[in-house]
Amino acid sequence: MTDAPVKLDQQDERVVRYTGVRGAARDFVQRVRGGDLGSLPVILGLVVIWAVFQILNPNFLSSTNLVNLTMQSAAVGTISIGIVLVLLLGEIDLSVGSVSGLSSAILAVGFVQLGFPLPLVLLASLVAGVLAGLAFGFLRTLFGVPSFVITLGGLLGILGLQLFVLGKTKSINIPFDSIIVQFGQQWFLPAWSSYTLVAIAVLVFAWNSLALSRRREAAGLSALPVSIIAIRSGGLLVFLGVATWYLNLSRGVGAPFALFLLLVVIMHFFLTRTRWGRSVFAVGGNVEAARRAGIRVNRVYISVFVLCSLFAALGGLMAAARAASANSSSGGGDTNLNAIAAAVIGGTSLFGGRGSAFSAVLGIVVIMSINSGLALLFLESYVQYIVTGAVLLLAVVIDSLSRRSRAAAGRA
Amino acid sequence: MNTTTKSRTAEQLLSLRGITKRFGAVRALSGVDLDVYAGEVVAIVGDNGAGKSTLVKILAGVHPQDGGTISFGGVPTSIPSPTDSRDLGIATVYQDLSLCDNLDVVSNLWLGRELRKGGALDEVEMEQRSWTLLRELSARIPSVRIPVASLSGGQRQTVAIARSLIGEPSVVILDEPTAALGVAQTAEVLNLIERLRERGLGVILISHNIADVQAVADRIVVLRLGRNNGDFRVADVTSEMIIAAITGASDNSVSRRAALQEESDS
Questions:
Q1: A354 touches chain B (CB under 8 A)
Q2: Is residue A87 less than 8 Å (CB to CB) from chain B?
C-alpha cells in the first residue's frame, strides 16, 4: 500500500479516504448525515407504508395486488418522468393531465370513430403533445412568463381541446381485441424474457462499472475496487431477480410497466451522461451561469417542455389503453397532481437542479401503494386524498430540510 | 512615461483606441485607450462610475462600443456578442462568479465545453484534466467531485478562474476577483494571477483594492469619469499617486485651496 502512488484525486491531505467495503459503508453513513439523503427517505417511507398496509390487510403484498399496482403505476409514472425534467429546470407543468386527456381523446376518436390506422393515430396523439410543449416552451422563452401561469392556461385550454375532440360523445370505448388495449391490459413479459432482461440489466451495470473503474485506474484516479462492484451488481441482481420472480408468481411484469421502466432508464442516461442532461442541471442550478457558459438556455427550456408534454401524451395513451376507453374526464381528477407529487415524493427537488429520473418510479410506487392499500381497506376516496396530500407535504418538508442540512454539511 | 516607446519583447495582444460608449445622455466612456501585452497583468482602477465595468463589458461582448477601434493581435476586430469575445480568446471571470452551485467542480470547469467520448460525457478525461489544470495553478481544491456550493469563497474564485482557462484564452479579464475574500484567500487568488502571467496570458484585473493591484500588477491604468487618467508602471508609482489619479486630486477641494493659497501668497 505504501508503494502505490497516491491517486490524482486523493493527494490533498484534507480529503478523508475510505477504502474497502467497510470504508464504503462508512462513506454512506457520512453522506446521509450530511443531508445527502438521495432516495433513502422514499425507500424508508415505502417500507413503512407497505408494512402498515400488510398488517391491516394481508392481501396487500400478494403478487396479484403488486402486479395491479405496477399496472396502475405505468401511465401516471410515464407522465411523471416529464415532470421530473421540468422540476430539474426549476419550472413546473400543470397541464400534463390535460395533455394526457387530449391524447386519450385523439386515440379514441381517431381509432374508433374515424377508423384511422392505429400507428397514424398514435403518432397524431404524440404530435399533439409535442405541439403543446413547443407552445409552452416558446411562451416561456419569448415572453418570460412564469411556467406556472403558462401551463395553468394550458391546463384549461387543452382541456377545452379535449372536449372539442370528443364532441358530443362523452365517452368512447376502445375494442378489447385491439392491439392497444391488449398492450394496456393483457400483455405481460413471458417469465423467461423477464429474467433475461434482468440479467441483461445487471450485466450492463456490472460491465459499465468495471469499464469505468479500469479507465479511472489508468488515468491515475481513484477507482472502485472490484469487490464493491461485485457487491453492488449482486445486490442489483438479487433485488431485480426477487421482484421479477414475485411478480411472475401471478401475471408477471406488464408490458406498459416494462415500457415505463425502459423510458426511465433512457432518461436517466440522457440526464447524467450527455451534454444536454448536464445543461438541464446547469440551467436548473443557475440560469445566468449556464448562459454565460455558452449553453443555449432557450433550447434547453423548449426541449424540456416538449419532452414533458410528449411524456404526458404517451402517458395518456397508456391510460386509455388500460381503461379501454377515453372520456371527458380522462386525464382529469388527480392525474395532474399524482404525476407532480410522484416526482417530488421520489426525491426531485422543487427548487431545481437536483433530482433523478428514478424518482418517477419511486414516487409513483409510493402513491399507488397508498391508493391500492386504502382501496383494499374499503376506505372512501376522501381518505385517499388526505393521505396522499399528507405524504406529499412530508416529501416537500424532507426536501427543504435536507437542503438545509446539505448547506450546513457543505453538500449544497 | 510613455509605455509604448519602451522596448517590449512580448507581443501586443489587445489594443483599444478611442473607445466611446454612451448610455442615453450619460457618456460612460469617452476616448479610452488600453493596451494589453502577453505575460502582463494590467490593472484597471477607478472610482465608482469611472467606466471600468463598461470597458469590461465591451471586451466581453456584452455591449458593443459606440466609437473607437479594438484590435486583437494587431488585427482590427469587433466584438458584437459574448461568443465572439470567447472565440477571439478573451475569457471573462465575472464578479458574481457564474458557477452552478448544484454541480461539482468538474462539471463547472467544463460547463458548455464538455468532452465527449462516443456521444456520452467523458467524465474520466474531464476529471483527469481538471486535476492537471488545478495542479498547474497550485490550486488547493480538496476534491473535484463535491458541489461547488461547499467550497470557500477563495476556492470558488479559483474554480471560476480555472474555468476561464479551459478554452485556452490569450487574455483573461478578472472583475474584482478579491472583492469578497479574506486575507488568506486574497493571497491565494493573487498567487493564481501571477501564475496566469507566467503562462504568458494577458491579464486585465479590475480592482478597487490598491494594495492588491500594487502587489500583482505590472501596469496600472486609471480611469476617471470615462477617460484615461494615467497609465503607470507599478515600479514607478506610489499608492498616493494612484489615488490622486483615481480621485482627480489635482482638482479637489484640497488642491483648490492649495492653489488659492499660492495665488494669494504670490
A1: yes
A2: no
Q: Does A168 touch chain B (CB under 8 A)?
A: no
| A40 CA: distance to closest CA in chain B (Å) | 19
Number of helical (H) and strand (E) elements in chain B, helices listed first: 9, 12
Side-by-side strand order, sheet with B219-224: B90-93, B171-175, B202-206, B40-45, B219-224, B227-233
> Can you tell me the distance from the alpha carbon of B207 to that of B223, in angstroms, rounded to the nearest whole number?
12
Q: Does residue B66 sit in the same domain as residue B135?
A: no
CA atoms within 13 A on the CB side of A244: 21
B186 contact A CB<8A = no
Q: What are the pLDDT tens digits along chain A (412 aa)?
A: 444 567 777 776 666 666 666 777 777 777 777 666 667 778 888 999 999 999 999 999 999 999 999 999 999 999 999 999 999 999 999 999 999 999 999 999 999 999 999 999 999 999 999 999 999 999 999 998 999 999 999 999 999 999 999 988 888 999 999 999 999 999 999 999 999 999 999 999 999 999 999 999 888 888 888 888 999 999 999 999 999 999 999 999 999 999 999 999 999 999 999 999 999 999 999 998 888 888 889 999 999 999 999 999 999 999 999 999 998 888 887 898 899 999 998 889 888 888 999 999 999 999 999 889 988 888 877 888 888 788 778 878 877 877 776 666 555 4
Quote the pTM value. Answer: 0.86
Domain co-membership, B23 together with B82: yes
Q: For chain B, what is the domain count? A: 2
Same domain, B134 and B188: no
For residues B134 and B164, state if they share a domain.
yes
Which ipTM was obtained for this model?
A: 0.84
Gyration radius of chain B's alpha carbons: 20
* Chain B residues lying within 8 Å of A34, measured CB to CB: none
User: Do B265 and B152 share a structural domain?
Assistant: no
Q: Which residues of A touch B121 (CB under 8 A)?
A: 273-275, 278
A:281-310 residues touching chain B, CB 8 A cutoff: 281-282, 284-286, 288-290, 292-295
- Chain B: residue nearest A212 by CA? B124
Give CA–CA dist A361/A346, Å, rounded: 7
With beta carbons less than 8 A apart as the criterion, state whether A39 and A343 touch.
Answer: no
Residue B98's closest chain A neighbor by CA?
A289
Do B143 and B250 lie in one domain? The reply is: no
Q: Which residues, including other chains, have CB under 8 Å from residue B121's CB and lie 6 or more apart?
A: A273, A274, A275, A278, B114, B115
**Whether B149 and A293 lie within 8 Å, measured CB to CB:** no
Widest pairwise Cα distance in chain B: 84
Total beta-carbon pairs less than 8 A apart between chain A and chain B: 104
Q: How far apart are CA B78 and CA B85, in angstroms?
A: 9
Chain A hits for B99, Cβ within 8 Å: 286, 289
Domain that holds residue B52: 1-89+172-266
Report the b/e string of B191-205 with b at 16+ CB within 10 A. Answer: ebbebbbeeebbbbb
Q: Is residue B77 located within the same domain as residue B209?
A: yes
Q: Report the residue of chain A nearest B132, measured CA to CA.
A: A8
